[in-house]
Amino acid sequence: MADVTVIGTGVIGSGVVRACAAAGLEVAVWNRTGRRARDVAAESPRIRVHPTAAGAIGASRTTLLCLLNYPVTHQVLEESGADLSGRLVVQHSSGVPESVGPLQGRVTDAGGRYMEAAILNYPDAIGTDACFTVYGGAPEDFAELGPVTKAMSGHQVHLHAEPRYAKAYHVVASAFYYAFVSGFLECAAIAEHIGVPLGAFADSVPLYDPGFENTVRVGLDLIERGDYHFEQAPLTTHIDVLENLTGAAESAGIDASYLKALRDRVRTALDQGHRREHIAILTEQFRARRGAAPRPMEGA
């Protein structure tokens, strides 16, 4: 009997398979495109390809779902008719918290146990110290997953007994990542336009790290307290900078820049009479639009 099953050997799944095999685990795998499963299996005698998803799931007590998304996962489980009774099923696919309940119900109704996992790094970091994965589910199930989390290496963090927490965390982390990507792309365009060498721009990025962390920590503390007074860098210090940056973005050919959106939000806050507040007060505009206070996750 295998130590673990991996359903889906795409970029993420194959990384998980390799890490588990390298850690000495016997791995059962299945993939819709058999060639991809056979390619990764050829790398280690510890990896065995199964011709059906049901066969692979039946080969171990723990199944890691690494398919494209939730609809594909539902389809594979439905078509396979796999026996999930007594098995620990861990979903790794991308999605939102609202996607979790139906899949969790499918697994538990079939007698299985369910966890959510979110891998927050590139696939090539799986199995290295740079791997960072968060989990939601019963603590005892997370403990049972120990051989797999050890194989994944890096930081493997159990967030909460409620599986949805993992996907909620993933949504927030992904939004932060893409905000960074948007900033990177626009800054590269501006750098080219005004003659800053891209290599010099790249070399300077690590110097900003302390400022990034401080902004996040201070800003989140102010948001939680609802008191945004902040003399170090009040709103009035941001508007001129953002006006200049918006002009630079337009000159560099950037349309719909995030800088323009941020400038407009700062303008709105100033029009509302805010002057000496931290820029985190802009979150109140989002709260006003959705007409609700912060919504806690179920089970919190």
From the N-terminal CA to the C-terminal CA, the straight-line distance is 38 Å
Query: Total strand count, please?
Result: 8
Question: Helical residue percent?
Answer: 40-55%
Q: Give the number of helices.
A: 13
What count of domains describes the coordinates? 2
Strand content: 5-15%
Shape: elongated
Radius of gyration: 23 Å
What would CATH call the homologous superfamily of the largest domain? NAD(P)-binding Rossmann-like Domain
Can I get a quick summary?
This protein is α/β, with parallel strands linked by helices. Helices cover 51% and strands 12% of the residues.
Characterise this structure.
The two termini are 38 Å apart. 51% of the residues lie in helices and 12% in strands. The mean pLDDT is 94. Helix 5 runs antiparallel to helix 8. With 300 residues, it is of the alpha/beta class. The protein has 2 domains: 4-162, Rossmann fold (3-Layer(aba) Sandwich), CATH 3.40.50; 197-290, N-(1-d-carboxylethyl)-l-norvaline Dehydrogenase, domain 2, CATH 1.10.1040.10. Strand 4, helix 4 (70-80) and strand 5 form a beta-alpha-beta unit. The longest helix has 31 residues, at 164-194. It has an 8-stranded mixed β-sheet, with helices on both faces.
What does the secondary structure layout of this molecule look like, with pairings?
Elements: E1 4-7, H1 11-22, E2 27-30, H2 34-41, E3 47-49, H3 53-58, E4 62-65, H4 70-80, E5 88-91, H5 97-109, E6 113-119, E7 132-136, H6 139-144, H7 146-152, E8 155-160, H8 164-194, H9 198-204, H10 209-225, H11 239-251, H12 258-271, H13 283-290
Parallel strand pairs: 1-2, 1-4, 2-3, 4-5, 5-6, 7-8
Antiparallel strand pairs: 6-7
Helix pairs in contact: 1-7, 5-8, 11-12
